[in-house]
């Protein structure tokens, strides 16, 4: 459950505006931890790595005969979904970067 709340907190921090529309950048309050883009990406990466590690640990426990198969399947499915999400986000970021680079100056 912590991974979901971490991801939601990262998303909420990313979606908050820094200030009202009339404020200039120099007047904006200092960003709170997790409110800048690099922090959001770092938090999301930590959540993704955690999910992948849980899947690996569940698989290792299943091989050793110490885990319930349902838990293993759930952990591996969660890791697969997380990996698919990370790959999709990466592809979208690369496409956005390429689109920006094609813009005329």
From TrEMBL:
Q: Which GO terms describe its molecular function?
A: cytoskeletal motor activity; structural molecule activity
Record-given protein name: Flagellar hook-basal body complex protein FliE
Keyword S-adenosyl-L-methionine annotated: no
Name one cellular component (GO) term.
bacterial-type flagellum basal body
- Keywords of this entry: Bacterial flagellum, Cell projection, Cilium, Flagellum
PANTHER family in the cross-refs: FLAGELLAR HOOK-BASAL BODY COMPLEX PROTEIN FLIE, PTHR34653
Q: Which family does it belong to?
A: Belongs to the FliE family.
Gene behind this chain? fliE
GO annotation, biological process: bacterial-type flagellum-dependent cell motility
Its annotated compartments are:
Bacterial flagellum basal body
